[in-house]
Design goal:
- By secondary structure, the chain is of the alpha+beta class.
- Helices cover 21% and strands 22% of the residues.
- It contains 5 helices and 15 strands.
- The strands form 5 sheets. The chain has a 5-stranded mixed beta sheet with strand order 2-14-13-10-15, covered by helices on one side. It has a 4-stranded antiparallel beta sheet with strand order 1-3-4-7. It has a two-stranded antiparallel ribbon with strand order 5-6.
- A hairpin with a 3-residue loop joins strand 3 and strand 4.
Amino acid sequence: SEMCIRDSINAEYGNTAAPMTHTMSVNVMNGQIGTNQATGLHGSDPGLTHSAEPILARAEFMQFAPASCCCWGCCYPDVVKARQYAFVGENRLEMNLPYGSCCCCTHWEACVMDRVFVYYFDKSPHRSAACHCCGFPTCVPCTCCGPPVIYAESPTCCCCIDTTMCCGERLSSSQHNCCGWKLCVCCADPCYTCPLCICCGGTMPLLWGLKNSQNFMSVYKMAYNNYKAKHRIGSDEAATFRFDGSRVQTAQQATLVMNKVQAWNS
């Protein structure tokens, strides 16, 4: 609800200033889907319909998505891009990562294959998965290495060259935060950001080729915290969210989110 999300934002950022006049890429909508107001192409296929459940945030993609980088954008014609979407509802993250069976020659919608993924807030990656003993899952959540992490980041080359314009931003998850360890034990990036880190279970990309992922993540986090409080998910099991805060000012971001939530219920 608007009140719960508003309370979560105020608790996170404090009461922020007056409404902002410009818009952001997160579209808080009433659930009537068929166009993607953020990009004008991704998610615009008229065959895409969803339930009447409110959609709190809709991701915005780079022009080449769902390709992993601009070099492969030609392999995904517009008819494929129009089927891609990702949104946050009141209890889940849902996305479609389509592909064309004829690669760059796919120009007929019947040749577009959907790959729809739904991640509910009470299951992994939003909640600690069950421990495994001798390869068999148990009924005990695996919390010994910390809670799961969902994070947005800008990809780099050689650890220092920003490749956002070529690859877009990325939304990833890790099974746990590796007890807060860093790649250099006590400094550098968190240990779980390394895709080769076996002790963290490895990082799992959820979405790539994103634009303005910070704005999307803000509403995502607020919706998840609202669900977590309502369903009493323990803090040791619940996912934490990490932002690359170098791009967006959180107070300004929170104001924009509240304005969008108000527009959703107006």
